[in-house]
Design goal:
Layout lengths: L1 E2 L5 E6 L8 E6 L4 E6 L4 E6 L18 H8 L3 H10 L8 E6 L5 E7 L2 E7 L9 H12 L5 H10 L8 E7 L6 E4 L8
Antiparallel strand pairs: 1-9, 2-3, 3-4, 4-5, 5-6, 6-7, 7-8, 9-10
Helix pairs in contact: 3-4
Amino acid sequence: NEDWSDPNTRIWFIPEAVGRHGCVYVGFDDDWAQGGLNSKGLAFDWVAGFKESWQPDPRQPTAKGNPAQRMLESCATVAEAIAFYEKHQEASFSYAKMLVADRTGASVVLGAQGGRFHAERKQESRVLTFGIRQERFEKLLARDTRPSLANAAAILRAACQGGKYATRYSNIFDLKTGQIYIYRFPDLDQP
């Protein structure tokens, strides 16, 4: 789910080129990807709202523009994504965590912990959230753990929020087929 005050959302596509995977990004009209999927089946998304003591290593290079976009354009697996962030600065780890998954089922939560870069790997699907949403997710997952479009959509719908920072869109990426599903809850229940 993408929650923010800006209603101007967009999806954009970057074609594959020499040295760059093809990518689809979701976000807002500022061209700063909030999530994405590449032609190799690697995907990412962010969850903000964490608070960590974090200072990127000034000896590491900064990626041009959005580091998450550069990672997706150059990496094909979770292992490569971890290696990318071990070598590049990411200031967002002071307030956010990134979920990265690949088509093999591997996933990692990237962020900061104790002032250091931290990567928590798993070889299974997972949910990254916190607070009241965590409780909602856990209840829904306990009912049916099958990784299906219907289950994922139900979980995202249940976690939508209203108000100034309402959910603007929800996205599901099928990492094996490359299919992209975008929802506009609560107005539309179909992708």
